[in-house]
Amino acid sequence: MGRTEAKDWRKATQETLRAGRRIDPIPYKPREGDGELFDVKISEEDLKGLIDENGDLRYHRVHEWALPKLGEESYWEWIAARMRNYMMHIVQHDGYNPRFYKPKEDHVILANHVARFFGCQHARMMKGHPSIEHAWNTRDSLFHVGPCSESMPMDAFKDMHRCLHFADDWEEDADADWEDTYLDEKVEAPATAKHRVNFGMVEDAFNKRWKELVRYGLHITFDESRVAGWYKSSITIGPEPKPIGTDAPLQLMCVTFGPLSTYKLHSWVYGSQKAR
What we know:
By secondary structure, the chain is mainly alpha-helical. The chain folds into two domains: 14-38 and 216-269, no CATH class; 69-211, no CATH class. It is 34% helix and 8% strand. The protein has ten helices and seven strands. The strands form three sheets. The chain has a three-stranded antiparallel sheet, with no helix packed on it. Strands 1-4 form a two-stranded antiparallel ribbon. Helix 4 (75-93) crosses helix 5 (111-126). The longest helix has 19 residues, at 75-93.
C-alpha cells in the first residue's frame, strides 16, 4: 500500500482536532407496527444521573444503577462483608497469610475495595485476561493493565481474588461461636439447596433487579446480529459459519434501541463440544 507524501502531511493540533466531525449515537426512533418493544425501565431523573456534563452516558454510572441490593446493603457492601468473614475463616482454619489485608489488625476489605476489584477484573478481561503478575508488571507493555495498577496494589487484588470462594457455602462448617470469631453477621439465607446458599442469594438479587429494569418485548440483540454501533466480541468474528472453532464461545445480549442502546445486559461463556 502506498502512503501520503511527506509534503502533504499536516500537523495535528488541538485546534485541528476540534474541527473534526463529531460522531453522534444513532437517534432513537421507535418503530411502529412491531408490537411492544423490549425496553429498559428508567425514569427521566435516573437517566439524567447516568449522563455526564458533556451529555454522554457513562458506563460506570449505568453499571452502578443496574446493580441489585441485598437487604439494606448495597451490592458492594454485601460482598465486602462476605469476603471479610471468609478472610477470617481461611486465616484461622487454613493458615492463609494475607499479603495486604490484615483482619486481626483491623485492616479489612471495604465496599469501595470490592468495587475497585471488580473494575480491575473488567480491565483485565478487556486486555485479553493476562495473568495477575503480567497485569501489574509495568515493565511488560504488552500485558500491563494501567487501570489495575492505578486502582489497587497487586497484593490487595490477590487477597480479594482468594476470597472469591466466599460463595462456597463454608458457613455451615464454621465454628458455633460466630460472634466471637467473625467481623460480620452470618448470612441467613432462605430455604434453598445447600450448594447455592451464598451464590444463590446473589443470583436471586440480580434476577429480581432484572425484573425491575426490563420491559419484555421485541428487539433484544445478540452478538451475532448486525446492529450499527454494536462492537461484536472478537471471539465470534470470523468466516461463516459462526461461531468459529473456539473452545469457549461468548454470547452477549444488549439493548437494540432507546437511550441505553448497545449496552450489554447479559453475557455467558459456554464450552463447545470440543471443550467438553
